[in-house]
Amino acid sequence: MTFLSLSFTLLFVVVAMVLSLWLKLGVERDLVIASVRAVIQLLLIGYILKFVFASHTVLFILAMVALIVGVAAWNARSRAKTIPGVIWPILAGLVATEIATQAVLLGIGVIPFQARYIITISGMIVGNSMVAAGLLLNRLQREVTNGEAEITMVLALGGTPKQAIYPHIKQAIRAGMIPTIDSTKTTGLVQLPGMMTGQIIAGADPVQAVRYQLMILFCILAGSAITSIVIGFLTYPRLFTSYQQLIVPK
Known about the structure:
Layout: H1 3-8, H2 10-23, H3 28-55, H4 58-77, H5 87-107, H6 115-146, H7 148-156, H8 161-185, H9 194-201, H10 206-235
Helix pairs in contact: 2-3, 4-5, 4-6, 5-6, 5-10, 6-8, 6-10, 7-8, 8-10, 9-10
């Protein structure tokens, strides 16, 4: 695809803007910003990856993975700015997910330790885990706000913070995982995932493309669970004072 043919696809953005103006949705500015950012970010990362792939340097691979995890954690943090120090549980969850999934893939020889595999697969896994983290934190804040009386009562009766908040943590973890589970259920029927579609367009055997896509889906499922559980259980202590008093996020 040439840059000229690519530029014609901007018509899709124009259509979205026209519809927004017609219905007075007020998202025209966001559409422009999102489109411009996408172009700049993707072109930039394309040239960076071209350099990293050509260098075959372990340090560059680890630096790219660290960048992916760091940006994902910072973005997820925006969903729970009122929780003090929440960036650290998010980082712990994403790092645990990255280590666990890559260790299995590399350990059983599914993928080689090469930049084109490590970086691209990390991006897919961490990206989906970031979404799960954001959903979990949103739900956890709502659960704590709505269940303040119940949590306070359990504490007043001598319960520990974990006992008081555990039912709400479970609901938040479920909220973080459900979209990934539902998406996996409809894969192949409602949607053809990007990795599989890209391989097929590039001329790969569809069955082989499906195998790689299943590998990614299973990693994403595990990543969603690991991220949600780690963040949930590392975040809840930050919702209590040293005197075991509940801090309601505002």
